[in-house]
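FORM 7B: Structural annotation worksheet

SECTION A. Query
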Amino acid sequence: MRFQTNSKELSTVLSAVAKAISSKNVIPIMDNFLMVVADGSLTITGSDLETSIIAKMTVEQYDNGIAAIPAKVFVNALKEFKDEPITIEADEKLFGVKITSSNGEYEIVGDNPVDYPNTPIEADCKSIVFTKEALIDVVDKVSFAACMDEARPVMEGILFDNRGEDAISIVATDARTMAIKDMTGFEGKWQVVVPKHCLNTLKGLLGRNVNDVEISFNDRNVIFGMGAMKMICRLIDGAYPNYNSVVPKSNHLLVKIIKEDLLSAIKRVSMFGNDKYPVVRLEFKDKALTLRSQDIGRAMKASEQVPCEYDGEDITIGLNSIFMMNIINAISTPSLVITMSEATRPILVFPDGDDSIKYMLMPLLLS
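SECTION B. Predicted structure
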């Protein structure tokens, strides 16, 4: 195998593909890039067996062939090259790899590419198209609510639920917090659960040259197509919880509040609470909101009034301050809306003026 290309262009592509390579691979061959040259096209694959990233680029002065090249040293070395043409040559019998630049030659030893696993077969796939901005929105505003408990693998993923009504709901939950984003314009009826880490990796691949992303999936894998690059992830098996059954339908108490006012007040008040039980009390009384927290063991407490628009009955509700701040940070509008019904029932939080996304938070019992 032999080809010539620009060092910076190759370095950029390799850095993207390397996002799929784990630092804790059990199988040594997975520490490598699989590089295949065929008729002037270079295909580079990186994988950890669960996630694979495959990129293509055009090369010059090539000889067709295949090589497995150690990813870490290859990426780090190319970062130090100036912007110049380089030549890569691989001995397909001894697996040696030589990099030649204008000023030097550099040699490393690869592995037998025959040992590299095959990438998943893309067969019987359904496809939808997302804009880059919509996918980034999903990662930023939904994925944080996914569970981090390996004992509940399905809830570690993000549910894409196409209900067959020209609409799709994208859901993440850890059973205490839930994020639901509704979108329209998607045909069919299907459900897939995508690993959270897969979407986080995808966000890092959505550069300036990406506009739309084609998402294809079958019963085992999801493929994100981004022009000359694609990412393949194994879907999470199992039935996702019936999220609609727990979303409140009759929260009649409504409060409108400036996002930064509430966020900064919770930050201040929660500093005087119990670190192991981070609860903040929201007291709605006489059409005003007061936040309270305390740590009896350290003789600390705090209270603060927060301006708001509220015209309902008096109610006091306890919330996990960390979870609530996570929700507020995911909201991009200047103000937000909270709806409630009882102190023991879930609250809903919406960006003011945007009903396409909502957050549910379970309350905490107050003494």
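SECTION C. Observations
The domain at 248-361 is CATH 3.10.150.10 (DNA Polymerase III; Chain A, domain 2). The chain has six helices and 26 strands.

SECTION D. Sign-off
Analyst initials: ____
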